[in-house]
Amino acid sequence: MAVSERGPRERMVFSAAQLIRRDGVASTGMREVAAQARAPRGSLQHYFPGGKEQLVNEAVGWAGRYAGNRVARFLAALPEPTPGGLFSEMVRQWTDEYGATGFAGGCPVAAATVDCAESSASTREAVAAAFAAWTGPVAGALVDMGVPRERAGALATLMISALEGAILVARAERDVRALTTVARELGPLLDAAVRQDG
Amino acid sequence: MAVSERGPRERMVFSAAQLIRRDGVASTGMREVAAQARAPRGSLQHYFPGGKEQLVNEAVGWAGRYAGNRVARFLAALPEPTPGGLFSEMVRQWTDEYGATGFAGGCPVAAATVDCAESSASTREAVAAAFAAWTGPVAGALVDMGVPRERAGALATLMISALEGAILVARAERDVRALTTVARELGPLLDAAVRQDG
DNA sequence: GCTCGACTATGACAGCGGTCATAGTAGTCG
DNA sequence: CGACTACTATGACCGCTGTCATAGTCGAGC
Description:
2 copies of one chain form a homodimer. By secondary structure, chain A is mainly α. Chain A has one domain (8-191): Tetracycline Repressor, domain 2, CATH 1.10.357.10. Chain A has 9 helices and no strands. In chain A, helix 1 (8-23) crosses helix 4, helix 6 (108-116) runs antiparallel to helix 7 (121-144) and helix 7 packs across helix 8 (149-173). The N and C termini of chain A lie far apart (45 Å). Chains A and B meet through helix 6, helix 7, helix 8 and helix 9 of A and helix 6, helix 7, helix 8 and helix 9 of B. Chain A binds a DNA duplex through residues 8, 29-31, 40-47, 51-52.
C-alpha cells in the first residue's frame, strides 16, 4: 500500500488499479481514485485528458507490466527453477495476500475484462495487452527451464487461466482452497513438460 | 435468447443474468433489465422487493443451477464419458457461443464476483453457492467415471477455475485460443485420474 | 356490482457519476 | 518585472441510477 511513491500521476494509476481490483471498474469513481492517491482532483483532467477510460487503461497496463515483472523475481527466489515451482510462487502471492489482508481484491485485469470487454474497445485492447505482457515472460521462463517452445505458450496460458479462475473462486468462497488446489494439481503436469533429454 | 419463456418474473431474472454477464453488475440498470425482459418496470419492486441486490442474487443462483444442470446433459451427449470429454464439452459450449455470436458475454457468476465480492455480502454468498452448485455435479460425474472420491473435488475445482480463467482471456483476446488450449492441455491429466483397476 | 388481491403504470426524488469551465497558484525563463 | 507553462482548486452541469409513492387496471370470488 505504499501510495507515497513517485509523482501524483503514478500514484493515481496505482490507486486506480487498487480500487478497480476491489470494486470493479464501474463502481470505482474518479474522485475516489484521486482521494486515495492523495492527489488533487483537478489533476485528473490534467494528467488524463482522455478521462476515465484512459486512467483505467493505464491502470490495466500497469498491472500487466507488474505481473510480467514478477515472473523474473519468482524465478530468482526459486533454488531450482521448475515450471511447477514457478506456478506455486504465482499462486502463493495470492494465498499470502488473502491470508494476510483478506479477500478484498482480485486481479484488476480480470475486473476490467468483465466490466469493459464489451463496452470499451480501447480497454479491451489494454486488457489483451496486459495478458500478453504477463503470458510472454511466463512462456519465456518455461522455455528457459527446458519446456519445448511449441508447448510453452500453451502451458503459460493454462497457468494464467487456472490462476485467474482460482482467484475468482477463492474470493467467492473466501477460502484459498481453490488456489492451493490448482497449484497442487497442475504442478506435476507442468514439471512433466520439461524436456528430459539433455 | 428465448426471453418469452414462463412468467415475467423468470424473464427478468434471466435477462438480468444476460445483461450482467455482458456489462457487469454495476453497469446493468434495473430499467434495462425490465426492458429486455419486456416486463413492466413496476413489476421490479413487486417481484423483487429486496431491490437490485435480490435480483442480482437470483440471477447468480439461476446461473449456478443452469451450469450444474448442463453437466448431466454433457454426459448424455458423450458416447463414452471421460473426464477429459466432459471438460471438452464444457469448453465447447463457450467456443460455440463465441464462434456464433461473438465475444459479448462472459460468465455472470464471474461478473458478480468481481463486482460484488467486496461490496455485498449476500451476493458474495450467492456466488459461492453458485460455484458450489456447479462444482458438485462435476465432481459427482468424475466419481461416476471412476475418479477416486478424494480427488474428484479437486479436479472439479481445477476444471472450473481453468474454464473461468480461459473465458476471461478469450474475451480479452477475442479469440477462443485460450479455451481450446486449456481443453487440450487438461484433457490427458483429467483422463489419467480415472482409476485403472476395473 | 363490489371488493380484494395481484400486478401494472408513471412520476418524482435524491444521490452520485464523469466531465467541463473557470480561476487560481507556483515556479521558471527571458 | 512580465510572461508562460505546469499544475491545482472548485463549482456547476447533466445524465443516469435505484428507490419510493401513488394511482391505475384487471380478474376472481361471492
